[in-house]
């Protein structure tokens, strides 16, 4: 891998370390080159090589076809059948929230508006077709409630009284649209880069991008923002237009599943976001408060 990086960047690797944070199953290194430059290198791992390889190819296409200040710079790309290698500018020295300031929250909202105004590549999937079933988690919970109930957030009786409304309202969330959508907006994918002209907000990991509604990214971001000390979703959004039900359903169906071996922190992250998204949906839909069994 060091030889491949050296060939792409024209200098040998003298140091490589794994960056802290993130939930991707890809292998990542911050590499230092003999000429003093640094970069981020990403590739697959043995257990997830095929899936990560496809993600890296999508990510590279995104960086190649989408030209905007919020995109990181590609420094190198080497595609092999089993282990493509993507090299990006080193953003490890940028500010990665949390903590969040009011100015940073506003900067992300401005950046997401810019993302939504940016033309999606012609090859980008339509989110309605690709993601509706995946995001409609309350349907899966209704079919098999065991994993959700194992979280201990509510009784089975509460679920039976509430789930039809959650499914019905979640189905109204607008995924269809012509906007560019990142679909994985969280703090581990967001950073603030100081430049002479000011601070630029960048967003990484574009392997889930698609074409859809202009509000999708902002709505998906809000539960994680609140868990990290930011405002509650209902303080920033008066009416989520079905997204609180849709988002809570996705996390309800995922959080109680067995851990992912290559990404062991994901289930706890989903549980934390569910603890925000479900009260958000209850508040918006006027549902009964959760009745936790003792």
Report on the architecture of this protein.
With 294 residues, the protein is an alpha+beta fold. It has 2 domains: 2-89, Phosphorylase Kinase, domain 1, CATH 3.30.200.20; 102-285, Aminoglycoside 3'-phosphotransferase, Chain: A, domain 2. It has 11 helices and 9 strands. The protein has helices at residues 2-9, 49-65, 102-117, 127-135, 137-143, 146-149, 156-170, 216-227, 233-236, 243-254, 266-285, and strands at 13-17, 27-33, 38-43, 74-78, 85-89, 179-181, 190-195, 198-203, 210-212. It has a 5-stranded antiparallel β-sheet with strand order 1-2-3-5-4. A two-stranded antiparallel sheet has the order 6-9. The termini are far apart. The mean pLDDT is 94.
The profile of the biggest β sheet is: 5 strands, antiparallel
Mean pLDDT: 94
User: What percentage of residues falls in helices of 4 or more residues?
Assistant: 40-55%
The number of helical runs is 11
* CATH architecture assignment of the largest domain: Alpha-Beta Complex
Can you tell me the overall shape?
globular
Quickly give the structural class.
alpha+beta
Low-confidence stretches: none
Q: Please name the CATH topology of the largest domain.
A: Aminoglycoside 3'-phosphotransferase, Chain: A, domain 2
Task: Tell me the strand order in the biggest sheet.
Answer: 1-2-3-5-4
- Strand portion, in percent? 15-25%
CATH class of the largest domain: Alpha Beta
Number of structural domains: 2
The strand count comes to 9
Radius of gyration: 20 Å
Distance between the termini: 54 Å
Order of helices and strands: HEEEHEEHHHHHEEEEHHHH
